[in-house]
Amino acid sequence: MTSSQKIQTLQKLERPSREEALGAVETLIRWAGDDPAREGLAGTPDRVVKSFEEFFEGYAVDPVELLERTFEEVEGYDEMVLLRDIRFESHCEHHMAPIIGKAHVAYMPDNRVVGISKLARVVEAYARRLQIQEKMTAQIANTINEVLNPKGVAVVIEATHHCMTTRGVHKPGTSMVTSRMLGMFRTNASTRREFLSLVGTPTSLGHDGG
User: Fold this and answer.
1) Among 36, 79, 107, 139, which one is least packed by beta carbons within 10 Å?
2) Which helix (H) or strand (E) holds 199?
3) Strand arrangement, sheet containing 176-183
C-alpha cells in the first residue's frame, strides 16, 4: 500500500463527534479520581480536545500532495540537498506520551527539486499523529522517495520519548536515534558518510542502510 492509499484509508475512518470527545475526557477525569465539574476542571475537557486537534492535525494532511510541486530549473544541480534540525513534537502510540526531537532529511535530486519548507512540512505531517519513531522515520523517507523519485533519500531522527523518561523505567537524558537510507545513501558508503558527517550523527549508523 502506497503512502497516498494509507492516507485515504485513515480519512475514511469514522470520526467521533466533538461532544463524544468531550465526554471521553470527562470520563478520564472521573476515572483518575477527580470531579470534572469542579471549578478548576470545568473547562478542561474543551481545552484537552482543542489540544488534541493541534497534536494530531497531521491526519488531515496528505504528505504526498505537499511534495507534488517541484522545480526543474536547477542548472544541472545534482548534489545533496539537506535540511537539518527540523524540530518536531509527536506522541507515542503506546502511551500517548510526547516524543520531542529533531529530524535531518536529505535527498540526491534527479533533475528536479522541491521547496525546502515542504520537507519540513512532511516531517510535521507524520509527526502530528500517534507514532513510533521507527515507523515515522520510514514514512518520511519512503514518501520523499515515492514522490520525488530521487537518486537517494536519507532520514535520521533523534528524539526523547517521555513514555520512557517520565514513566516506566524513568530514564531522563536518554535519546533514540533511527535512520532510513535509500538509493545512493544505502549503496554508496561515501555519500552516506558525507550525510552523517553533515548532520553530526554518530558514524556507527554508517554501516547500516537503515
Assistant:
1) 79
2) helix 189-199
3) 130-131, 81-92, 98-108, 152-161, 176-183
φ, ψ (nearest 5 deg) of residue 126? -80, -30
Q: Which amino acid is at 130?
A: L
Q: What is the DSSP letter of 205?
A: G
| Alpha-carbon span 176 to 202, nearest angstrom | 12
β-pairing verdict for 152-161 and 113-114: unpaired
Residue 188 identity: N
Q: What is the DSSP letter of 178?
A: E
d(CA 202, CA 86) in angstroms, rounded, equals 18
What is the SS3 assignment for 52-89?
HHHHCHHHHCCHHHHHCCEECCCCCCCCCEEEEEEEEE
Report residue 201 as a C-alpha cell: 550523527
Cell 509527526 belongs to residue? 127
Indicate which residues carry an active-site annotation: 92-95, 133, 161, 163
81-130 pLDDT tens trace: 999 999 999 999 999 999 999 999 999 999 889 999 999 999 999 999 99
Alpha carbon 155 to its chain centroid, in Å, reads 11
Q: CA torsion sign, 184 to 189 to 190 to 191?
A: positive
